[in-house]
Amino acid sequence: MKPLVTYTDYRTYLSDLVDNRKAQGIPASNRWFAQRMGINSTSWLTMVVKGRIGLSKVTANKLSEILRHSPNETRYFETLVFFNQARATEDRNRYYQELCALAKSKEARLVSKEQYDFYTEWYHSAVRSIIGMHGFTGDFKKLAGLVVPAITPAQARKSVELLESLKLIFKNKIGGYEIADVAITTGEEVQSLAWANFQQETMRLALEARDRFPRDKRYLGTQTVGVSAETFKAIRQLIIDTKNKIAEMAHADQSADRVYQINFQAFPLSEPPKSKESSL
């Protein structure tokens, strides 16, 4: 099976490991693991794999001992557990960077690292869109100058290198760059973290846009409404449909000359009463 240091979800790793051990005739039953863990529950491992219960530092290290992990694998597995179970984006980023450092200490490398890097900086997607509209032949200073807020030529170079490594852009026959119609895909755990980082960055840019651009160059609207759960579902779908329609319009626009960031947010500002009869 794949090396432990290529996994970004410990539950997937445990599931693959159990299947691999069974295929080789190595003990891997729920009872076998429970006995060695000293846990009085024959369904413990199944509950862990299905995400119904988590692992503590103690149980993670005990599992590593049973599975005869190397010292590096033990540290990786423990950090992976912390990464998967952390809720705050800041903590998840910290643990992910630790995973990357541990993975680099072996020949294996996290396959999702470059995809994660794409969303770490907001300007990578902007650079890709600019190349799609205007092309690019190697003038990093000019490319950086088209990005708002401005980035450095060094950042532009790093972005182009990353985009090329992800096959999101490619060199044509005359030496210029064009965009490729390829989607970014990652494991679910890394994708959710990367997307959270990207959303935070674009929301920060939205706040700055109020002072950076005049009204005719931007739109920042807000609305506070009281609705039922069913109506909110309809509103959410309306936002999704609108987002998809905007994507279709952008794709069909043959005279595009500028990159825009369009954000949608909808979140609760209150909790519903515990019962319909309750009053304030």
Topology:
Elements: H1 10-23, H2 30-37, H3 44-49, H4 57-66, H5 71-85, H6 89-104, H7 113-120, H8 123-134, H9 140-145, H10 153-165, E1 169-171, E2 177-179, H11 188-212, H12 229-252
Antiparallel strand pairs: 1-2
Helix pairs in contact: 4-5, 5-6, 6-11, 7-11, 8-10
Features:
280 residues; mainly alpha; 434 Repressor (Amino-terminal Domain); 2 strands; globular
What does this protein look like?
It is a single chain. With 280 residues, this protein is mainly α. It has a domain at 4-107: 434 Repressor (Amino-terminal Domain) (Orthogonal Bundle). It is 56% helix and 2% strand. The protein has twelve helices and two strands. It has helices spanning 10-23, 30-37, 44-49, 57-66, 71-85, 89-104, 113-120, 123-134, 140-145, 153-165, 188-212, 229-252; strands at residues 169-171, 177-179. The radius of gyration is 24 Å and the shape is globular. It starts with 9 loop residues before the first helix and ends in a 28-residue tail after the last helix.
